[in-house]
Amino acid sequence: DDLDENYGVKGSKILVRIDINSPIDPRTGRILDDTRIRAHAKTIRELSERGAAVVLISHQGRPGEPDFTSLEPHSKVLSDRLGMTVKFVDDVIGPAARQAIKELKPGEILLLDNTRLVSEEIIEATPEKHAGSIFVQRLAPLFNYYINDAFATAHRSQPSIVGFPMLLPSAAGRVLERELHALSKLYKPEERPRVFVLGGGKVHDTLRILEYLHANRAADRILATGLVAELFMVAKGINIGRKNIEVLEAKGILALVPRARRLLLRGLPLETPVDFVTEHNGEVRVEAVGTGIEGVIRDIGPQTISMYSEMMKEARLIVLRGPAGVIEDPRFRKGTEELVKSAAESNAYVIIGGGHLNVIASNLGLADKENMHLSTGGGALLLFLAGEDLPGLTALAKSARKFFPQLS
Ligand code: 3PG
User: Are residues 203 and 162 in the same domain?
Assistant: First the structure.
């Protein structure tokens, strides 16, 4: 709205950074969850209806990972959810992309390919440095404005997030606006105790987040699940069995043990599971922690579910991020479902951080409960809640001081 009132968006060309990084089936390339794609529909429709030519950019996965793919399938899903044509070009900053941008007419929508096809996009640097990157220098002259709607990537200081706001009048999109509004309503510093339930696969990221949460005393209790729990159990000297150690080793997680141990020594209030659902020679069983675990860990066990659910009862704010087990397989979904249910039934405000957990909450019919906020963000959300500055938001604020001095 500020952009429209101050400059007018009709007839302009706008670069919109969205985050449609979605879970992908590695065998078929199918998009498994369209939550993030649907979330951006409002921003895109509104800009198109106000008469702007809308060019969308997003990343998907990381080079080397199985979910690092082209965005062509995303353009089809987006067209379908918007009920509007979304053109696609399999290029980001080359001649084909620049030509397609130049030819785009008011009201039309174009999605460029995965931003991480450009190697500069995985470098973390300052907004000023990224403003001089080839990525930003090639595209910025083709646009009048930049909009950041990618709340979920606001913790990355990458060119598509922090570079463009230095050169173009910029604004927040509707997703970013909605997230900040909801979080500021839900997140009252005096609301304690705060319980964080953390699992999922991004263990390196989660460890960094735990360091911030602890440094800022932002969490009163952390209930660890999944690989995060396994890391901390090793750090505590608990025997999780040879097979699970091998999994941690293969994923480069064992190297994190000294950092995890340091956090525990400094008093990080982190709980680990007391039992697991494991798989051993094709057989599924529950194994208690203590005597050494034989099978491969797939989910938290019933004792852990009731212990964690009990611990959530006293909370005023509960934040959940990452599944507790291998939820792609229905046999290992129970732990995650039960934790989401317990959180929803508590008296706390509940913030769900992204992806898989949003799908579980929706499938359980809990998404619209008044005490729940389903965020599009994962790592970005947690860093925000830990009180850290998010580079994406800082860059927008800098841009506003430069291009909207009358508002600052
Ligand atoms: C996320 O899913 O957390 C965001 O899309 C950021 O992705 P990244 O962790 O690969 O940078």
Answer: no
Please work out whether the CB of residue 21 comes within 6 Å of at least one atom of ligand 1: yes
Is 62 near ligand 1, meaning CB less than 6 Å away? yes
SS3 225: coil
391, pLDDT greater than 70: yes
- What burial letters (b/e) apply to 360-393, b meaning 16+ CB within 10 Å? bbeeeebbeeebbbbbbbbbbbbbbbbebebbbb
CA–CA distance, 25 with 367 (Å, rounded to integer) = 24
Distance from Cα 125 to the centre of ligand 1, integer Å: 17
The per-residue pLDDT for range 277-315, each reduced to its tens digit, is: 999 999 999 999 988 899 999 999 999 999 999 999 999
pLDDT at 274: 98
136 & 78 share domain: yes
Residue to mutate, 153, 202, 207, ligand 1, most ligand atoms under 8 Å from C-beta: 153
Ligand 1 center from residue 390 Cα (angstroms): 13
pLDDT (tens digit per residue) in 44-76: 999 999 999 999 999 999 999 989 999 999 999
Distance CA 1, CA 332 (A): 45
Domain span holding position 253: 187-377
Report the pLDDT value the prediction gives residue 176, as an integer from 0 to 100. Answer: 97
Was 17 annotated as part of a binding site? no
Count of domains for the chain: 2
Same-domain check for residues 66 and 133: yes
pLDDT band, very low/low/confident/very high, at 252 (cuts 50, 70, 90): very high
- Give residue 59 CA to ligand 1 midpoint distance, Å: 8
From the list 209, 211, 152, 219, the residue with the least C-alpha distance to 189 is 219
Q: Give mean pLDDT, residues 198-212.
A: 93
Ligand 1: does its nearest atom lie under 6 Å from the Cβ of 304? no
Alpha-carbon dihedral 39, 43, 44, 46, rounded to 10 degrees: 130
CA-based nearest residue to 318, from 253, 383, 382: 382
Tell whether 244 is in a known binding site. no
Residue 139 shares a structural domain with residue 196: no
**Mutation pick for ligand 1 pocket among 17, 18, 21, 57 (CB with most ligand atoms within 8 Å):** 21
Same-domain check for residues 197 and 123: no
- pLDDT value at residue 188: 75
**Does 383 contact ligand 1 (Cβ within 6 A)?**
no
Nearest partner of 207 among 187, 188, 235, 176, judged by Cα: 235
Residue 335 counted as domain residue = yes
